[in-house]
Amino acid sequence: MKAIVNVSLKAGVLDSQGKAVKHALDSLHFEGISDVRVGKQIILKLNETDADKAMSDVTKMCEDLLANTVIEEYEIEIIA
Amino acid sequence: MKVTILQFPGTNCEYDTQHAFEALGAKTEIVWHKSETIPSDTSLLVVAGGFSYGDYLRSGAIAKFSPVMKAVAEYAKNGGKVLGICNGFQVLTEAGLLPGALKRNEHLHFLSKHHHLKVVNNDNVFLKKLNKNDIVNIPIAHHDGNYYINEQGLKELYENKQILLKYSDKTGADKNPNGSVDSIAGICNKEKNVFGLMPHPERAMELLLGSDDGIKMLEGFLSA
Question: Which of B58, B94, B148 sits opposite A13 (nearest CB)?
């Protein structure tokens, strides 16, 4: 199965890249954007076949390495 | 006095750091990150600057799992003195040996220039040769130097006098190059044996090269 991990800065932590991207979109006259957040996506191919086990493994990976929880939050999607 | 300097793949300030401490009369040894031990006669351990593991994922994120880092944590726990410069500071925050985190510079540019710093606290071995409110001129060279800590953490830094240096102009007025919380350039842990800063004192050892203010900083460790 596959795990898709999205890591982004926590709400309340200034996202300078998001701000710069929003500014660029504004200057291209794309309207109606109230906020832009830039994050990163990490895609893992797993040998695990149990979705719950995969979720708990990947959560541990996020806590240990994939995200710095001082400034970042993460979302995990497990795909069979 | 023996200064041990760590070297990860991508570290690039280990020889400058070695040169600086040897110029001050210290013995030095560069230790590769695969080592599971650090020399037993180490009196200061330096995590030098550079781009360990290419800054992949986050600056310092992968280096924190290098074999030597267990020995570093153990050394620090037993009261050994540890100094992280630039990428070394990032490694020490990632490893949880210092509080907070270093984010991308607020304006997203890589900075490489001399910058003035103000001494905020000198009741520690690192800055004891300097006075409070002294201004030093030290090079900075970083992309991820935007120090972040939450409100509660910041309060604790102030209460425990853990803030070492703040970015300033030459008169000591606040001047923030990268968006760091309260213009913080360097901190230490509560026990005051682990130090981290983004600026490079080892690059400020010769007046001919712009400043020798780094001497007074690094000397603090030698007379400990």
Answer: B148
* Angstroms from A70 CA to nearest CA on chain B: 7
Query: Residue A58 belongs to what domain range?
Result: 2-79
User: Is B93 an 8 Å CB contact of chain A?
Assistant: yes
| Domains held by chain B: number | 1
Cβ–Cβ under 8 Å, residues B113 and B198: no
Half-sphere exposure of A38 (CA within 13 A, CB side): 12
Q: What is the CATH number of the domain that holds A64?
A: 3.30.1280.10
CB contact under 8 A, A68 and B100: no
- Is the CB of B103 less than 8 angstroms away from the CB of A71? yes
Q: ipTM of this complex > 0.95?
A: no
Report yes or no: B61 at the A interface, CB cutoff 8 Å: yes
Is the pLDDT at B224 greater than 70, yes or no?
no
pLDDT digits (tens, 9 = 90+) for B132-159: 999 999 999 999 999 999 999 999 999 9
- Counting one residue from A and one from B, how many pairs have CB atoms under 8 Å apart? 35
Q: What are the angstrom distances between the C-alpha of B127 and each of A11, B118, B201?
A: 36, 11, 12
Q: Which of B61, B105, B150 sits opposite A68 (nearest CB)?
A: B61
Cβ contact A79:A16 at 8 Å? no
Print the domain residue range for B56: 2-222
CA distance B59 to A16: 17
Nearest CA-CA partner of A3 in A39, A68, A56: A56
Please report, for the domain that includes residue B172, its CATH number: 3.40.50.880
Is B13 among the residues known to form the active site? no
